[in-house]
Amino acid sequence: MKIRCGGVPEHFNYPWHVAIEQGYFSAEGIEFEWIDYKGGTGAMCQDLRADIIDIATLLTEGAITDIANGNPSTIDSVYVSSPLIWGIHTGAQSQHSNPDTPGLIKYAVSRMGSGSHLMALVDRIQRGLSLTDASWELIQNLDGARVSLQKNDSDYFLWEKNMTAPYVYNGELRRIGECPTPWPSVVITITKKASARIGNLSGMYRALEKAIHFIQQLPDPVQTIASVYDLKIEDAKDWYSRIEWAINTPLTEKDFDTTCHALVEAGILKEKPDYTHICKA
Signal peptide: which range, if any (predicted)? Predict the structure, then answer.
């Protein structure tokens, strides 16, 4: 059985790589292919639709939005139950220093409807700022955002704070605030076509559980994460202390409702979709 899976090249996806390296997928009879997506949830949703990948680890809000808009996929499980901490970043020479300050702000976003787009809106809502004062600069990925902020083509960029830490430390970017997701941050999404072909995903989940246990039993998992993802020890330690993986765990209706409320309030969805249309029953 072959499974093609996509995810961003970030530390919360490390268990998939461990499962490949340790042969856990092979032991379950799975021919597993992993594809890195620097473009994030939006790029993976495109390839789920195009049948290029079968499964993806998507930001919860992005998965709900794209399925509601016609992606023939289903949220099968929560993957990371802990919130994602989004850093609010500016360029080193930016005049901006306080995200609570009202006024016109241009945000660098990977794609419209992406996590970086939605969380910019969620952050403005939580701070009581006008949504009409926000505008958008499409930059595709983190590398594009770095260029945009340095050239002052945009003002703010929201991205997972540990992944941007190297650029904060080297002085290229400044982090002026944070915005945690008020819902489980990452879900495992599978196309309906792949679900019909593969059937039960229990073997894949067993392999992932073994990989997570392997990481937790390493002599120094923090050092390993820091080395693999080029993080400072203190950042890896901070992230590892907060990460909560959840395997084969349905997205609850309560968390679904919270996410949908934010999506509707931000104008990304016109109305709340039906839970059973988006999530595995």
Answer: none
Structure-token pair, residue 123: 């952050």
Exposed/middle/buried for 183, CB within 10 Å: 0-12, 13-18, 19+? Answer: buried
Please give the model's pTM, rounded to 2 decimal places.
0.83
One-letter identity of residue 152: N
What 3-state DSSP class applies to 160?
strand
Q: Which residue has the tokens 């020890």?
A: 233
Contact criterion met (CB below 8 Å) for 187 and 75 = yes
Q: What is the full per-residue pLDDT of the chain (281 aa) written as tens digits? A: 999 999 999 999 999 999 999 999 999 999 999 999 988 888 999 999 999 999 999 999 999 999 999 999 999 999 999 998 999 999 999 999 999 999 999 999 988 877 888 899 999 988 999 999 999 999 999 999 999 999 999 999 999 888 899 999 999 999 999 999 989 999 999 999 999 999 999 999 999 999 999 999 999 999 999 999 988 899 899 999 999 999 899 999 999 999 999 899 888 899 999 999 999 87
How far apart CA 183 and CA 234 sit, in angstroms, is: 25
Q: In what order do the strands lie in the sheet with 55-59?
A: 31-36, 2-7, 55-59, 186-191, 73-80, 245-249
CA atoms of 183 and 256, how far apart (whole Å)? 8
Residue 143 burial (CB count, 10 A): 10
- The CATH number corresponding to 85-180 among 2.40.10.340, 3.40.190.10, 2.60.120.10, 3.30.70.2640 equals 3.40.190.10
Q: Top-level CATH class of 2-83+183-278?
A: alpha beta
Same fold across 2-83+183-278 and 85-180: yes
Provide CB contacts within 8 A for 213, sequence distance 6+. none
Indicate the domain borders of the chain: 2-83+183-278, 85-180
